[in-house]
Amino acid sequence: MSSKAKQSQKLLLFTLSGTRLFGIGTLKIREILPFKPLTRLPHSHSAVVGTTSFRGSTVPVIDMARAVGYPALTPDEWKTSSILITDVQRQQTGFLVRGVQKIIETDWKKVKAPPTALGDRAFITGLLDVEGDIIQLLDVELLLANVYPDSLDSSEVALTDVQTETLKALNILLVDDSRVARKQLCDVLDTKNIAYQVTTNGDEALQVLIKDNELGRPVDILVSDIEMPGLDGYELTFDVRDSGTLKQPYIILHTSLNSEMSLSYAKQVGADEALTKFDATELLHAMLRGANRPE
């Protein structure tokens, strides 16, 4: 393994309204399709413009501009638009975008967190300067949660009293830049009255790990997203594993990507497990495996 956990990240750049560029990691994208006629979906959210067929499955198509607050694409604009078929949080969704520009290669250290002035409702997880153009990285999880609010409801997980008390005794740290993903993680633990700490990026998480270690109560379980501005989940994992002073936590990398490549790389950098968001039972049982690991 190299001295740094570097993995190039590719972003697809596209437009929604005017010339402003937006980006999504290509690992989230299954295919880019030219527009084709859609089947209307009655009683659906106003941003859902219909469904399309993709590899034998029926996939809902969301007008991304409408979903994030821009004017909806007109039927005439549909003719020159593209449909991004994504695979996020265990579901396939199509996003109608005005125009696909290009794919670029970057790394998450260059991505800056969005200004807090944008507020909690901004659909932005990060900003990237590409040759003077500011690319806005979209929070696809928040967008989907707005269109499908029921997706935020975490199913109740059955745990024994012993399992619940085992988790309550742990120092658990959650890391995710997506507000929706943080809410899902927190809700699962809140329903069991299990204490935890939460940060929005890898840099903050590393400081918590170092501080708690110095205070004599090191983090036992680290649950981290992969794609984050600054120190991403891969690099955070590598830095923790490479530390000669930190008591080693059980590391669960938790990603919205249904990608074998991303999950495989998680193991390479030292994660104990890699899970695809979001399954509450799967997550709690992974934490229990961490609690019961041999010393």
Automatic annotation (TrEMBL):
One Pfam family, short name: CheW
Span of domain Response regulatory: 171-292
Gene3D superfamilies xref list: 3.40.50.2300, CheA-289, Domain 4, SH3 Domains
PROSITE patterns registered for this protein in UniProt: CHEW, RESPONSE_REGULATORY
Domain CheW-like per the UniProt entry, residue ranges: 8-149
Gene Ontology biological process terms from the UniProt entry: chemotaxis; phosphorelay signal transduction system
Protein name per its UniProtKB record: Chemotaxis protein CheW
Protein's organism: marine sediment metagenome
